[in-house]
Amino acid sequence: MAAAAAAAVGGPQPPQPELPAPGLALDKAATAAHLKAALSRPDNRAGAEELQALLERVLSAERPLAVAADSEEAAAGGGGGGGPGAAEEEALEWCKCLLAGGGGYEEFCAAVRAYDPAALCGLVWTANFVAYRCRTCGISPCMSLCAECFHQGDHTGHDFNMFRSQAGGACDCGDSNVMRESGFCRRHQIKSSSNIPCVPKDLLMMSEFVLPRFIFCLIQYLREGYNEPADVPSEKDLNKVLQLLEPQISFLEDLTKMGGAMRSVLTQVLTNQQNYKDLTSGLGENTCAKKSHEKYLIALKSSGLTYPEDKLVYGVQEPSAGTSALAVQGFAGATGTLGQLDSSDEEDQDGSQGLGKRKRVKLSSSTKDQSIMDVLKHKSFLEELLFWTIKYEFPQKMVTFLLNMLPDQEYKVAFTKTFVQHYAFIMKTLKKSHESDTMSNRIVHISVQLFSNEELARQVTEECQLLDIMVTVLLYMMESCLIKSELQDEENSLHVVVNCGEALLKNNTYWPLVSDFINILSHQSVAKKFLEDHGLLVTWMNFVSFFQGMNLNKRELNEHVEFESQTYYAAFAAELEACAQPMWGLLSHCKVRETQEYTRNVVRYCLEALQDWFDAINFVDEPAPNQVTFHLPLHRYYAMFLSKAVKCQELDLDSVLPDQEMLMKLMIHPLQIQASLAEIHSNMWVRNGLQIKGQAMTYVQSHFCNSMIDPDIYLLQVCASRLDPDYFISSVFERFKVVDLLTMASQHQNTVLDAEHERSMLEGALTFLVILLSLRLHLGMSDDEILRAEMVAQLCMNDRTHSSLLDLIPENPNPKSGIIPGSYSFESVLSAVADFKAPVFEPGGSMQQGMYTPKAEVWDQEFDPVMVILRTVYRRDVQSAMDRYTAFLKQNGKFPGNPWPPYKKRTPLHPSYKGLMRLLHCKTLHIVLFTLLYKILMDHQNLSEHVLCMVLYLIELGLENSADEESDEEASVCGPERCHDSWFPGSNLVANMRHFINYVRVRVPETAPEVKRDSPASTSSDSLGSLQNSGTAQVFSLVAERRKKFQEIINRSSNEANQVVRPKTSSKWSAPGSAPQLTTAILEIKESILSLLIKLHHKLSGKQNSYYPPWLDDIEILIQPEIPKYSHGDGITAVERILLKAALQSRMNKRIIEEICRKVTPPVPPRKVTAAEKKTLDKEERRQKARERQQKLLAEFASRQKSFMETAMDVDSPENDIPMEIATAEPQVSEAVYDCVICGQSGPSSEDRPTGLVVLLQASSVLGQCRDNTEPKKLPITEEEQIYPWDTCAAVHDVRLSLLQRYFKDSSCLLAVSIGWEGGVYVQTCGHTLHIDCHKSYMESLRNDQVLQGFSVDKGEFTCPLCRQFANSVLPCYPGSNMENNLWQRPSNKSIHDLIKEVEELQGRPGAFPVSISSETNLSKEMESVMKDIKNTTQKKYRDYSKTPGSPDNDFLFMYSVARTNLELELIHRGGNLCSGGASTAGKRSCLNQLFHVLALHMRLYSIDSEFNPWRKLTQLEEMNSQLGNEEQQPEVPILYHDVTSLLLIQILMMPQPLRKDHFTCIVKVLFALLYTQALAALSVKCNEEDRSAWKHTGALKKNTCDAEKSYKVLLSFVISELSKGKLYHEEGAQECAMVSPTAWSSESMEKYLQDFCLPFLRITSLLQHHLFGEDLPSCQEEEEFSVLSSCLGLLPTFYQTEHPFISASCLDWPVPAFDIIAQWCSEINSFTERHAEQGKALLIQESRWKLPHLLQLPENYNTIFQYYHRKTCSVCTKVPKDPAVCLVCGTFVCLKGLCCKQQSYCECVLHSQNCGAGTGIFLLVNASVIIIIRGHRFCLWGSVYLDAHGEEDRDLRRGKPLYICKERYKVLEQQWISHTFDHINKRWGPHYNGL
């Protein structure tokens, strides 16, 4: 190749073999330099040609990809497959060299970067990248910033959040079109273009020549790689091509990152049309180029976007005269100039639904028959590159490259235009794509960058008809999945709707296009263009009508539907996204008067579309029965634009309303939905499956309600306000199918409704009327009032967290409109209506979040049941709100009983809607109210308190909204209004209330009781005549009323003659043969609404004459009627309130009320109830009562259980703990008695039927985490901070043991220390006991029970049968008395020497147990098995420390260390000291006594060499020379190096149990002497030479005084003089100074040191004594802890306590002369330090003052953790983990679930939990902010310790708000870790299968 290049340059070099690479590079560089020089000359034609020739050769596409593909197969067969890859590399190398023009490529890059005017950031990211969005700084709601720009800018106090990008995006920093400049970061604030020097011409000259060729080469590759096969090309092929092209595209991407200078060169290259024409015309002699050009044409053609005979008409680029109007014709079989489109692939995809396809949508005719949908002509590289990017379904690399170029303004415009030009093609590709999700994301990734910029969007709209293109493309897209609508008239319907089952809708494939459309509509200039363009509006309404009536539900009446389709998700999503969101976008621009015209346009075309729709479905006046669709987007468009027109634009409502007939049609479908909601809730649709309930819920759910139910109700309100009220009311009752129920008769038949549904449907109808009449959302409330009402409704249902409130308050659902309507007002309204309840933590309780709860005055004045009913998704929420309201009233003493929903005053109506109130003043409604009141009073069936409540509510609404003063109303009765019957004289409720109705004729079944009674009544027809105007009792039929009104309206509009109305009496239009026959009966009523109300009052209160008009006593009431007394209460209060209001409104009413009350009414004779009816009534009542009783019982049971659980589960409160159930009350009982919680029997634990304690054994490394400094370690949040575990307790103990093992005999080392700091076994119990045989059968039953999977029965896990606490073993209780202690506790007066002898003898006597081990009893078997459990609890590495594996010494060490671990942990639970005294909770839960028996039993199996029993060394003097004989053997550990606490446990566990108190005290005294000597030795090493010699002398003087053995000064001087004989104090070098404390030792500080040294031993010993002998621990101050404990242990003779300055030495009681034994101990050390002085010193200084263990301290703000860890690479696999986690105990960074770090099938977290916490791990998941606990083989999500400003967790960082540490929660976590109660407190555990 080099040779070829040289030849091209024209040098005379002979052809030479290919050079090795370095030569090549030189050559390339030289060639490049030469060419650059040639091109720099003024006449550079020759150079240019040379370069072209070279590039031809280098970038030649002679190796098309087809060859590459073949060669792969060849390679597989053993051919040379290295070809293509290598050549590609080579070509890239050449390009780099040429660009750099002979210099180094890196230097070239740096040089270009220097000229970058970095005004914009433009960083492009892909999905899952963490970015930020600041609403305070954003102009466009899509604005986003990369983390770097965000942190460099100042956003304090702004409303920002962090988010994970879903589709990818780009950083907008520096772009003032999208965000405010104040938010720019420091880098992009400077407008630096001014001071950047001009780019030198020669720097980029080569790039201008090379890049066109390079890009052309890339395009050729893309052409070659695309084979247009018969079917869609398989993804594999496409991906293969893309993989091969990876390096080339990456190279381009790197170029874009060089900054502005290089970008502008690339822009020139990509947009230059001449270059493109020259290179791609395919006319050259080059066959290869020709071939590729042909392929390109084929690809173009197959895209359906050119004419078959390649006659390329102009693209959309040149707008010509007629472009704004456009013609669109369907694909299938489009004829005319378009020729036959290549529609094969379209056809077979949608062949099944041929129906909708055939329909052609002719939108408008146009001068030019050229359609957006079918011309593509490419004129530049950019256009063809985008074409291929689409063809290859948007490969990520290409997308990133195209986006990286965007900071270049010129490119941005060109690219946007190209994108728009290809829009139709994008839609087609998207529809065919298999990976539509990925592709959608990539499309939006691009389009959101282009269309968020208003300036750009406006430009493209004007120049490229962007809106036309978008609307048409959307229309086309939906056309492919249309089906015939079955609504109304199935056969003849001409309406088509989208089929929600199609993939297009199911997978939301349309969302990228819709989202772009919404995005551009958010710009005012674009939206105005849309609203002005009539053609577009027509097209758009056409589009919307595709969704009108989709997803029709038909009620199943016979059997349950077989297959529940879930298409409704797709339908709701489609209406919200494709219809509602664009609507909200448009509405946001119709806010002022000037925009009236737009509203008129929309309303006009909307009504036209609706009219077309009614015609298409053949709709006249009755909706088809048993059908409902929830989707009426046209109705909703109409409603929302009406609302805006009245609210913001001051339009006159009537000017935009249609005629009455249209209004009647308009109201039918929304009303049908309301009735269906009631039917669904009455379980009438249950055969349609659960999905219908799902639809009913979604319809009212917070994200949908203001685009669905709210507009529907508003539209009904508008219709109601303009239509005849009688017609409307009767329509409502007919729709709800309860017309037949509204009769005075006690029995009736309902032809359309089953009896069991009547009650709930009637409730539904009345509730709907109440909502319709009292809701003011669109009728006059301001935005802030609406927000307040919504918020109050949500808070009344339940306390809410801030985020759930934000989610539940319906916002303007167009996400592009930015913020929730005024988030400032959101916060201020919230603080006005609610109180914040900070999260509280009870131990054992669940983690609570910060909640908002309504203020008292909100309950008092603002609680609005109507709003609550409207907004509840679940009916139980209404109940919940009422319960909370009741509780509030009780608590504040406002009302004791069960209150009714309060009546709330409404905001005044907007004048345009005044007509709505006529509904309350129409006779039809009054008749209904009268009838219902009468029926309730008479106890007819199917009526409920709810019905009464609603009836009264409606009466009250009517009184509140009555017409003006009724002075003239008396006259109006005789006015022209013809009485359509004699029920009521007028239509004003106030007057009608007092009107008496005497007789009513009803139609009843012949069996009804009324029939028998009516014979006498009919005779007195004369009396009837006098009472009623028409002479006969009237029957009233709602249906007939409605028909009549409908006819009237139709006639009025058609001016025809009056048609005959059906006769009124036909109260039924049912099938003729309906049995039983109806007859007419006449009822005597003689009531008015007022009298019915007063009687109801009597009935409700259960007293006669209970109502007494209040104004008779207190006339004031009538003057100031707002009386708080009436605002809360039950039905009685409501009746009183109504009567008062009625009296206020008219003097007549007042008089009549007084009259009624005066005629003291005799008891209302209950109308004769037939036996059968009585039965049903009683049954109903009994059922109700039984139900109530059951509820009560259940509630009581639940609360009992709850309180038990609380006491049983509580961990930290000693008061309410369950004591261990061991009877210790009467001292004369000889044996301890245990209750078995399984069989319930009580009795002692015996040899053959032992009882055991329920225990949980767990390995623990908590002790090992103690450190010696109080400063807790912090979690590292920078590279510098690291945590090293050198100073932890576990590490120090490990070092000590290995040091001892290096120099001393192994078996002796294993007795000199304790293990179990890491992986020690902790035993805890819930305190319940059970028989061990009962436990075995319990485990069997658990094994067979498949349900419980929270724990593993095979591993022996179970829950305590009584308190359900988690456990995994049973610890046998040792038989024998609990009271034996008494015998042993009598102090004996033996001397210490006798006791020492006794102890030694007892230790030497094996089998001194009451039970001999040899005899295998049940008890000993159990003890062995529990010992095995204890061993298996921890890992082998934590048990085996011996050099000889499996040695008995190891077991010995392990066993006494278990005791040590449990004692130490209990000490930590008590806070590290025993000052608080008493038995702590840990004490109650402790099972140390039983544990000691088990351990002691096993310790006795091992005898210690009597040769080396530490006891002898402690208590006897030996002959000095005995040790010198065995030099060759490793020596024993010197006694001063022994751990005294370990010695104590060994001594005690070696003794026969139970132990005698005086023996115990004896052992403690002996060991204290040793401990004290150790303290003195350590002190002597710590101080310096002068101090030592000084003390040596002062002490030596007093050596012979009487209490020399109890004076620390004497003893210290003796220790120093003894140890000076060896080399311990020698070689005092520099390192010694480190130990010296700067202050000299005073006697106080020495005393303190000695006490601190001894305290840990005293604490453990006191605890042990407390457990073994049951003595209480005294409480004390910290400073006196030492003296109190030592006297409690019997070290301190009683008379000593008087001395004031306490001296620790006074506790000493030497078993043998002190100086002799000290001398003996020191000599052992001296012989060791002869050889190892350094180690000798280190071993003497034991650090015994450990601080309490803590988790790592976390930073205040979560962001600091997140930023450091979420991009941190894992130390094991050096990748950035997908789920990074941090251990909160030691700070290790791990990959959660990462397969990369798996070892022997264990993932990293599980492995770490075993190494760090012996099976317990606490990890913070960095990307989720939650803490996960791993315990053995189970794990649980614990919750988060980081909360936002509103006290809420943000799991998975979904909201991305700033999070702050919650110290209380972290304390709770730490407490659970230390007290090992994770298993008890956290309930949701699952197995992790080692996969975390």
Describe this structure in words.
- With 1892 residues, the protein is an alpha+beta fold.
- It contains 75 helices and 28 strands.
- Strands 22-21-23-24-25-28 form a 6-stranded antiparallel beta sheet.
- A hairpin with a 6-residue loop joins strand 18 and strand 19.
- Helix 35 packs across helix 39.
- The longest helix is centred in the middle third of the chain and has 39 residues.
**Secondary structure tally, helices:** 75
Unreliable residue stretches: 1-25, 61-84, 306-370, 815-822, 965-981, 1012-1033, 1055-1075, 1162-1170, 1208-1229, 1377-1385, 1407-1414, 1521-1527, ...
Shape descriptor = flat
Helix- and strand-based class?
Answer: alpha+beta
Enumerate the strands of the largest sheet in spatial order, edge to edge or round the barrel: 22-21-23-24-25-28
* Largest pleated sheet: 6 strands, antiparallel
Counted beta strands: 28
Instruction: Give the integer mean of the pLDDT values.
Output: 78
User: How far apart, in Å, are the first and last alpha carbons?
Assistant: 54 Å
What would you report as the Rg, rounded to the nearest angstrom? 46 Å
- In helices, the fraction of residues equals 40-55%
As a percent range, the share of strand residues is: 5-15%
